[in-house]
Design goal:
This protein has 333 residues and is α/β, with parallel strands linked by helices. 48% of the residues lie in helices and 16% in strands. The strands form four sheets. The protein has a six-stranded mixed β-sheet, with helices on both faces.
């Protein structure tokens, strides 16, 4: 019996896109004014093309979250590209296995829920600096409203809730319609699916959860970055969402990446109870797993379709640059 235990815990701790860059200074000429989120039918961005020769190519769709929640993606071009491909390469993932029967897994649920709250029944007012707590109260009032339970949560989970509510208020949604459409097309045309995966086995999950529930996460940095993000960067996120929806890749390049995810992921992975399980160097291990799968797919298939976060396609040291370093030609949309 498998249970994706710590993977689920990590997602609940840092649902704001893992391992993204810290906020950067906006590029010259980049818009930072408030924006109206687009709606209706939108084309999305074009595809990146990776090749060494014309007989073996890979097309990559850059994904982004959040996106306009009232957008309908016009996906015919992507679906046609998927239809002529032989393999769908997903982004890198993680699989955590627990060798326990269902009854024992159910006994772990109370301990798992206990990790959501601060140790020793502390509230946010007890664990946050006064100035940061005052900022939290203002944003909580604006986006969450009255809630006693949220004040018992660890800062990293309170930050996640605030982020989610602020995105909803801005007309944005973390749940993407993009991947399901691509997956449906891949299944329809019987593509081989490859998911580069980092596998970790937890031998003593009960002890791990007990340790985690009694320790503090170094998550003030995550909480602070998220508050800063909600206070000042929502307009930029709207512009990025609009640029993806309308297919404006130049605008995406010009706008800063303003996601606090890196600080939140570090807060979880730096916890001794997590680090002891083998969750070290996850980003580099995932990157290498994906690159190995991409090289294999390019050697094997006439056409491969892949999806990667847009940040990895645009940043100077991202996955595309790694492929370029291996001798592949990269054509941007």
């Amino acid at each position: 019996m498998r249970l994706v235990l710590v993977a689920t815990l990590l997602v609940s701790f840092c649902n704001v896109a893992p391992a993204q860059e810290a906020p950067e200074t906006p590029a010259a000429g980049a818009q930072v004014m408030d924006a109206v989120v687009v709606s209706g039918e939108q084309p999305g961005p074009g595809l990146w093309r990776v090749s060494k020769d014309d007989d073996h190519v890979m097309y990559i769709l850059g994904t982004l979250s959040p996106l306009p929640k009232k957008m309908t993606w016009l996906s015919k071009e992507v679906e046609a590209t998927v239809a002529q491909s032989q393999e769908l390469l997903h982004g890198p993932g993680m699989q955590v296995s627990v060798d326990r029967n269902m009854f024992r897994i159910m006994l772990l649920v109370p301990a798992l829920l206990g990790t959501r709250n601060n140790p020793d029944k502390q509230r946010l007012i007890d664990v946050l600096p006064p100035d940061l707590y005052a900022r939290w109260l203002e944003l909580k009032k604006k986006y969450i409203g009255r809630s006693w339970s949220i004040d018992r949560r660890r800062p990293i989970l309170a930050a996640q809730k605030l982020y989610s509510e602020a995105m909803d208020d801005a007309g944005l949604a973390d749940r993407s319609q993009i991947a399901p459409i691509v997956l449906k097309a891949a299944k329809k045309h019987k593509l081989v699916e490859t998911s580069p995966t980092i596998k970790i086995t937890i031998e003593h999950p009960r002890a791990m959860l007990k340790d985690l529930s009694k320790t503090s996460l170094d998550d003030i940095a995550c909480f602070t970055k998220t508050l800063e993000h909600v206070e000042s960067d929502v307009s930029t996120m709207k512009l990025r969402a609009n640029a993806w929806a309308t297919g404006d890749v130049d605008e995406l390049r010009a706008l800063p990446i303003t996601d606090p995810g890196a600080a939140c992921v570090d807060a979880v992975l730096d916890n001794p109870a997590i680090r002891a399980l083998g969750f070290s160097d996850l980003e580099e291990r995932a990157r290498q797993a994906w690159l190995d799968a991409a090289v294999a797919a390019l050697a094997k298939n006439a056409s491969t379709f892949a999806m990667l976060p847009m940040r990895e396609l645009l940043k100077p040291d991202g996955y595309l640059e790694a492929l370029r370093g291996l001798g592949y030609e990269i054509e941007a949309p």
